[in-house]
Design goal:
The complex is a heterodimer of chains A (312) and B (556).
Chain A (H helix, E strand, L loop, with lengths): L1 H11 L5 H7 L1 H19 L10 E2 L5 H4 L1 E2 L3 H7 L4 H19 L1 H12 L3 H12 L6 H12 L5 H6 L9 H29 L3 H9 L4 H26 L6 H7 L5 H4 L2 H11 L3 H29 L7
Chain B lengths: L1 H22 L21 E7 L11 H10 L2 E7 L3 H10 L6 E3 L5 H9 L16 H9 L1 H7 L12 E2 L20 E5 H7 L7 H13 L2 H6 L7 E3 L30 E3 L5 E3 L4 H15 L12 H9 L3 E6 L2 H5 L6 E3 L25 E3 L6 H9 L4 H8 L7 E4 L5 E3 L2 H8 L3 H8 L6 E2 L3 H4 L5 H14 L17 H28 L4 H13 L3 H21 L1
Parallel strand pairs in B: 1-2, 1-3, 4-14, 6-9
Antiparallel strand pairs in B: 3-11, 5-9, 5-10, 7-8, 12-13
Helix pairs in contact in B: 2-13, 10-19, 19-21
Classes of the chains: A mainly alpha (312), B alpha/beta (556).
Chain lengths: 312, 556
């Protein structure tokens, strides 16, 4: 982001030297300096830490004193018994999450936008996004209660006694459905804001031309939303591999590992619980690399749809 | 122009990087030569990071500790927590923000050796003399086994010994079996059996009949008047320490105690170690118990429930058969209806309880770090922990609070439950939880005869253990917890152990729940253990360490 901003002035004029042009707007550049410095301090400087993925990190010898071991930790990861399963689960879990939970806020926003009674509209919105403020820890506690085979809500309704948390087949559904319940309402905010900005004369003209409600959504609302949708898609692609660690960690049991074993949890267990810093950094780095590749791919694809929101 | 911008930006980046590097200033390390005592005594204020009981009010106002600090002429700033301690400690060590000492973090020999060899923890051998630690030195002289247990493979001692030798010797038995020897006591509702006109089962098949009868007659509803269909014939956790299903495997010739040295390691009478999880007995057991699970005799929730969930089910009278440390705590007001379920014969008439490792000495409860300037001062304080009356007060509570009077031999009697409730409004157990200080406490078996009387609950459990359970045990030897590994061996363990354990427990659960294993599944499971989880390498390591351990023991 910052790069494209800093480029902007040079595109504009071209005659005056850059320092002069900068001097004219020095207040703006001063303001820009704040986010640039923050980004460097919090995002770039800590990156020097990833070198321990290539070292055998010993705390007493420190970052610079530990021995280089090359790709040892990466090789260990790829030869660990559950490596393939973890990569597969991570990708599938995030892919399905995206597939199911991405369109729902858009549909909700389009529907709510049709509500004409303002008070009702606002109430619906509030009700929908309230679950977003519940912490993951509490949500997982609630899920455990709802899914319990002894008197859990779901089993009572279905008249069964299935221990969903020890069913590998149910894990992704639990994860994704609870994610939708929690965050769909929050996701509509951006879309609602865009829809609110649409010039009402469009609707009036469409109505006069005899367009139905669906035609109005199809030909007015949707095209206006496309840039937002693409932007949101790219942003979600950026965190595709970072599945909600806490939720997986809190809902994992021995028996649903077949689908719940993901890289993020493994990194936590190896790094924080077993204190294998080099190893878990290597695994985390691998995760990030896959993520960056996915981001670039999605960005390339989406830039074809909407030119003005592409990043790289 | 654009180029210049880029240059400026990269200068800024590099500058920032450099600043960051120099900013992580090195913490001062008072590292000393190994084998030579550091005579500096200038530091009198120390920071100790460690564990505290969730019920405790902390160590700041602990009268026993404060008195000992005064005696040693030092002051300690306690940085203690009961939650997520090991994560916090790992982060502190990784970031080299070391306190002066770590207390009761629960380091195993692997951690200690690693941190000792890389210099985070100091070697305590030069301080184990009359001059610095008279109490401990005396104990170590009298008990060479304790000394060898805390000496790591490189000859260094990086942690002070801790251990509670609470065993059957304390109740006057000839053999000294640790109280942890059999963690799971299984129990059955005798009142239900009587109502149905059945005997207490002696074989697994008879237990099966009893469970079926419990279910058919919905005993929880018909006998205790609970809701219809609330009976759970048998409820346990899965691979849990004192509340797992593992004791029932004894009918197949083994018990795989969880949280052991490694979950499924057994020591055969001939001194060879083996993994039960790769044996045919293990396969037979899982096949057998899957039928129970399928018939609904074992709780469907066994794989995901917590211990509090189990207690709540049991104390409401829903459960016919379960396992726990002892009956009262689990069954609550229904406790009188339950009796111990004997070790049951398997389908081919055999049974064998492989006992659990326990009661060893560990050295992971106190380590002094290289950040400590005057270890001698700190060790003077910790030497007092090895006086019998001090350790008694640290373990239970101060004299005058937890210990009320002495008998004619000068042995302290602890407060009774009733007295505690009257005086402090809480049970003796809660009182202990409030006052207990975690750390390097060494309670030798003769303390129970000379210094303080063993708790009533412990006496009861040890008596049950000795009289009811031990007769079922053919071979009471266990893999020693205090085995010492070389650095290469530790590397192998570090590499494979976690993956091995998780592969085994996952498969065990799946087979119990879903049935199997078929021949093909069994083969591919064995292949996974051998090729990916390093089964053979692990066996070699554990065998080697054990052989050396025995050699050292014999040469003493």
């Amino acid at each position: 982001m910052s790069r494209s901003k800093t480029k902007a002035p040079s595109k504009g004029g071209g005659e005056k030297p850059i320092l002069q042009r900068m001097g004219a707007y020095w207040q703006l550049y001063l303001m820009l300096l704040v986010p640039v410095i923050l980004t460097i301090v919090y995002k770039y400087i800590p990156m020097y830490g990833i070198q321990i993925a290539f070292r055998d990190y010993k705390s007493v010898r420190g970052m610079w004193g530990s021995d280089w071991v090359g790709l040892k930790w990466f090789i260990r990861f790829f030869s660990s018994p559950n490596c393939v399963r973890m990569i597969k689960n991570t990708i599938l879990l995030s892919f399905y999450s995206l597939l199911w939970s991405f369109p729902i806020p858009i549909i909700l926003a389009l529907m709510i936008n049709q509500l004409r009674f303002n008070k009702f509209k606002r109430t619906v919105q509030t009700v929908l996004y309230a679950p977003h403020f519940i912490s993951v820890m509490v949500v997982c506690g609630m899920l455990r209660v709802f899914l319990s085979p002894s008197g859990g809500l779901i089993n009572l309704i279905a008249g069964t006694s299935i221990d969903f948390l020890s069913e590998a087949a149910a894990f992704r559904t639990i994860y994704i459905a609870s994610g939708i319940w929690q965050d769909a309402g929050w996701g509509i905010i951006v879309y609602m804001a865009t829809l609110a900005n649409i010039d009402t004369s469009h609707y009036e003209a469409a109505k006069i031309d005899g367009a139905s409600m669906f035609q109005r959504i199809r030909y007015i609302d949707l095209p206006e939303l496309v840039p937002q949708i693409v932007l949101m898609l790219i942003m979600s692609a950026g965190s595709l591999m970072n599945v909600g660690f806490e939720k997986v960690f809190l809902l994992q049991t021995d028996l649903n590992k077949a689908t719940s074993d993901v890289i993020a949890v493994y990194v936590y267990q190896q790094g924080i619980e077993h204190a294998k810093y080099s190893y878990s950094t290597a695994v985390g780095l691998f995760n990030t690399i896959v993520n960056v590749i996915l981001l670039i791919v999605v960005n390339k694809i989406t830039s074809k749809i909407s030119e003005d929101v592409s990043f790289v | 122009m654009v180029k210049m911008w880029k240059r400026a930006l990269s200068c800024l980046l590099v500058g920032g990087l450099l600043a960051a590097m120099t900013a992580c200033s090195k913490q001062e390390q008072y590292n000393m030569e190994p084998g030579v005592a550091n005579t500096d005594t200038s530091q009198t204020e120390f920071t100790i990071m460690g564990a505290v009981s969730a019920l405790s009010k902390g160590y700041d106002n602990n009268e026993v500790l404060n008195k000992m600090q005064e005696e040693a002429g030092i002051k300690i700033n306690w940085n203690v927590m009961s939650d997520s301690l090991s994560e916090q400690v790992n982060i502190r060590i990784a970031g080299r923000q070391l306190p002066d000492a770590f207390l009761a973090v629960g380091f195993n020999n692997y951690d200690i050796t690693t941190y000792g060899s890389d210099g985070a923890f100091i070697d305590l051998t030069p301080y184990l003399t009359e001059e610095y630690m008279p109490n401990l030195t005396k104990i170590l002289e009298e008990n060479p086994d304790i000394k060898s247990a805390i000496t790591m493979s490189d000859g260094g001692i990086y942690g002070l010994p801790a251990g509670e030798k609470m065993g059957t010797a304390g109740i006057g038995a000839e053999e000294d079996y640790s109280i942890y020897t059999i963690p799971q006591f299984s129990m059955i509702n005798k009142a239900w059996l009587d109502e149905l006109g059945m005997e207490v089962p002696t074989t697994l098949d008879e237990l099966h009949e009893a469970l079926v009868a419990f279910q058919e007659h919905d005993m929880s509803a018909t006998y205790y008047g609970n809701a219809k269909g609330s009976t759970i014939p048998m409820s346990t956790g899965f691979d849990q320490w004192c509340w797992g299903q593992n004791i029932f495997y004894a009918g197949f010739g083994f018990t795989n105690w969880p949280n052991d040295v490694i979950n499924d390691l057994v020591l055969n009478p001939d001194g060879k170690v083996d993994f039960v999880c790769a044996s045919d007995n293990y396969r037979d057991a899982l096949t057998y118990f899957h039928d129970w699970y399928k018939e609904g005799l074992m709780d469907v929730e066994m794989f995901s429930q917590s211990d509090t969930q189990l207690i709540s089910k049991c104390s409401q009278g829903y459960v016919g058969v379960s396992t726990w440390w002892y009956i009262e705590e689990l069954m609550g007001e229904y406790a009188d209806d339950y009796v111990f379920l004997p070790i049951l014969d398997g389908p081919d008439g055999t049974h064998n309880v492989t006992v659990r490792t326990g009661g060893g000495t560990n050295s992971g409860s106190l380590s002094i770090t290289s950040a400590c300037k005057s270890p001698a001062n700190l060790l003077k304080f910790f030497d007092q922990w090895y006086e019998p009356e001090n350790v008694m007060q640290l373990q239970y509570g101060p004299i005058g609070t937890y210990f009320v009077d002495q008998d004619e031999n000068g042995v302290w009697n602890s407060i009774s439950d009733d007295e505690a409730k009257e005086k402090f409004g809480k049970s003796a157990g809660e009182l202990k939880g409030e006052y207990e200080v975690y750390g390097p406490k060494l309670i030798l078996s003769d303390y129970y005869n000379t210094t303080f009387k063993m708790e009533d609950r412990a006496i009861e459990r040890l008596t049950d253990l000795y009289e009811f359970w031990m007769p079922y045990v053919d071979n009471p030897i266990t893999y020693p917890v205090d085995c010492v590994y070389t650095e290469e061996e530790l590397d192998v363990i570090d590499r494979y152990k976690a993956d091995f354990e998780s592969a085994v427990s996952e498969q065990e659960g799946l087979w119990l729940k879903e049935g199997g294993p078929t021949d093909a599944e069994w083969e591919s499971y064995l292949k996974l253990l051998k090729e990916k989880c390093g089964m053979e390498e692990l066996l070699k390591v554990y065998q080697g360490a054990y052989d050396r351990y025995m050699e050292a023991k014999e040469s003493q």
